[in-house]
Amino acid sequence: MTESIYAFPAKVPVGISQCLLGDLVRYDGSHKHSKVCTEVLAQRFEFVPVCPEMGIGMGAPREAIHLVGNLPDEAVRIVGNRTAGLDVTEQMEQYGRDKAAELGDLCGYIFMGRSPSCGLGNIKVYHENGNPIGRSTRGVFAREFTQRHPLMPVEEEGRLRDAQLCDNFVTRVYAWQRWRALEASGLTLAKLQDFHARHKYLLMAHRPAAYQHLGRLVALAHQRPVEDAAQDYVHDFMTTLKTVCSNKSHTNVLQHLAGYLKKALDTKSRQELAQIIDDFRQGRVPLIAPLTLLRHHLRQHPNAYVQRQVYLEPHPPELLLRNFY
Ligand code: SF4
Q1: How far does CA 98 lie from the centroid of its chain?
Q2: Candidate from 118, 122, 144, 154 with most ligand 1 atoms within 8 A of CB, to mutate
Q3: Which of 69, 213, 304, 305 has the fewest Cβ atoms within 10 Å of its own Cβ atom?
């Protein structure tokens, strides 16, 4: 009944800073075309482009802007680099709130880094006189958007060029998409239990203790309205997935999964599987190598519980995200 929730849709909607698609919307009339976005992720992401500075009517080319002010973040202002009195703080905050309300159905968002509007962090803040204040924050649009959608997966484009971080982000995008599909299908305790069971090894790969913690939450969910339990569950679930899997935790999960095949495989096949998992542990082969062999054996010796594990295929395989680390 819930199988459709676990099938990958043809495309998932993902927000993106528009300059990353190659559009000439930057302050100097240029772009920041991202190959990883347009050549890899665009195969399965339906990008929803947003340029907040164009969105508030600044045009391109335009005067560059930067952040001034002091703590707290809400007191930071977004002002022109040259023109005294050019202050677009209120427009940008309102635009961020409007777009966040409009784009609540996105499965994720890719932001351009180092931008006082779109950056997710490390954006320098200056004194009125132009000297750095010695602290940094989020861009104003990114701040408004992420405050409204604290669980939606977000990432800066520069980090997606790291294979492991890209795998982590796309894993979170599809996890969020599955969760939203689960909610849309009508949440029940049985569906929550099934969701948790299917994500057992994915959670273990991210943070082993989190699987136990979330398991206790699900076990006690019958004591209160399922919607309340689900809210606590998804908060901790999405937070757990932000932890990037280590080589050690992947190895641990692979060895657990291989354990299900222990009786079915002959000695030679068992040794070959153990060897390729160890090759991965030592960095000699990428993650896809032991996974491919595991999946091969599972086709020969089906195990319904293991084959339902999201860990085996957390995102569409043609993205090749596990082939490079
Ligand atoms: S970083 Fe954001 S505001 Fe700047 S050009 Fe790109 S999309 Fe527009």
Answers
A1: 22
A2: 118
A3: 304
On whether residue 3 sits in a domain, the answer given is no
Residue 4 in any domain: the answer is no
Q: What is the pLDDT of residues 258-269, one digit of tens each?
A: 999 999 999 999
143, 96 in Cβ contact below 8 A?
Answer: yes
Pick from 160, 191, 214: which residue ends a domain? 160
pLDDT of 1 over the 80 cut: no
**Alpha helix ranges (H) inside the chain:** 35, 52-55, 89-102, 140-148, 163-184, 189-198, 200-206, 208-219, 226-241, 247-259, 267-281, 288-300, 304-307
For the chain, what is the domain count? 2
**Claim: this prediction has a pTM higher than 0.85:** yes
Tell how far the Cα of 269 is from the centroid of ligand 1, in angstroms: 52
What was the pLDDT predicted at 73?
73
Q: From ligand 1's centre to the CA of 162, what distance in Å?
A: 22
Q: Domain for residue 107, yes or no?
A: yes
Domain boundary among 131, 160, 189: 160
- Say yes or no: CB of residue 25 within 6 Å of ligand 1: yes
Which tens digits make up the pLDDT trace of 196-235? Answer: 999 999 999 999 999 999 999 999 999 999 999 999 999 9
